[in-house]
Amino acid sequence: MFEKVLIANRGEIALRIIRACKEMGIKTMAVYSEADVDSLHVHLADEAICIGRAPAPESYLRSDRILAAAEVGSVDAIHPGYGFLAENAKFAEQCSMCNLTFIGPGAAVIRSMGIKTNAKEVARRAGVPTTPGSDGVIVDELAGLEAAKKTGFPVLLKAVAGGGGKGMRLVHGAATFLKEFNLARTEAEKNYGDGRIYFEKFIEGPHHIEFQILADRHGNVVHLGERDCSVQRRYQKLIEEAPSPFLTQELREKMGAAAVRIARECGYENAGTVEFLVDGDGNFYFMEMNTRIQVEHGVTEEATGINLVQWQLRVASGESIPFQQGDISFRCHAVECRINAEDPAKNFAPRPGEVGLYYAPGGYGIRVDSHVYGGYRIPQYYDSMVAKVIATGEDRAEALRRMDTALSGYIIRGMPTTISYQRAIMRDHGFQQGIYTTKFIEEFASRMPEDPSEKICQELNS
Length: 462
Hints:
Layout: E1 4-7, H1 11-23, E2 27-33, H2 40-44, E3 47-52, H3 63-73, E4 77-79, H4 89-97, E5 101-102, H5 107-114, H6 116-125, H7 141-151, E6 155-159, E7 169-171, H8 177-192, E8 197-201, E9 207-215, E10 221-233, E11 236-242, H9 249-265, E12 270-278, E13 284-290, H10 297-304, H11 308-316, E14 333-340, E15 342-343, E16 349-350, E17 358-359, E18 366-370, E19 385-393, H12 396-408, E20 411-412, H13 419-426, H14 429-432, H15 440-445, H16 452-461
Parallel strand pairs: 1-2, 1-4, 2-3, 4-5
Antiparallel strand pairs: 6-7, 6-8, 9-10, 9-12, 10-11, 11-14, 12-13, 14-19, 15-16, 17-20, 18-19
């Protein structure tokens, strides 16, 4: 096992990794930007070193500075968390060249599965259905337009690299295809340095279901069940739960087996996620593979009782997975709400600032992963997520009631947050019935007051 691990990240995921390391007797080293000098991960790690100015390209995306810090700290391994360099194949290669263990899959797998057109080919070889669309990258936009006409509109233009909704454009007809193609290409180039675009047939109102994978270097591959991530806005997840209220046991087994086949086909090691779209008739299609730990990994940890971050460390150090597929089951229902420093009344505009009074909920069946505290200043340079609240219950209804109670007692003063918005969803009849797809937020908006940041907050907090 490693003696010291460098965490190449910030925020709540850095804290999560630090705690997992401490539980295993592993020393930790944090890196931080000038904006994060007062962040909790800096104070709770055994060592910390500043790697640059606040903007991520000058700190958390500087692989040379992170590797220099690793040399100064004499670490054995680097955990990238999620985001930043977590799915950067070149960084994984650099770690290997420096005799450092990259806690994640190998560079070749990251590179292959990070290009979505390549990943779809892997899925096809594994016998897993994929969404109809372009035959690889669109080289010529006019040829792409003709291919889209044959596939049938609407289609979804997607960047081959990256994630999080950047470089994605929904095209309803031929008249707007070329305009949206150029916008998608420009956005992809700006965000990922890769402007290549492909398209898929747009599935109206699907369910977004992802399966958690864990694989070791000894050929053992298991899935830890699914997470339903259909509640999204602008392709960004807001709520996740396990198990999905939509899947039948038969469909769960089919999709889980498909996810394992994809992991085997690409030679995957460590934790990862295979994502699917599922239509209303139960037909599922491979969408992409995330070659890292997910933001919502805690949902699966609570639902299965398996510590994913610890197993990332164990697998990376060469240990074998001791449990088999038949040993894994959901021991409870788990639901997660992402809490962001955003204003729901202003199209979820980020609202960084200084936190005043801070009080996190607790109690049986409640877990809060956060790096925020009273007096902490949320930087403007990074993602607006400030916490993840996870509630568990013997069944879904109990988990939702606990989440509603937890959110009612969650206090973050000093800026707007999505706490009350999330609580309104917990009380929505459709959501409580488990009747939702990726169109939920759009439909929910029609049932919301004009100003959710004030009217709903006042009502729910009264």
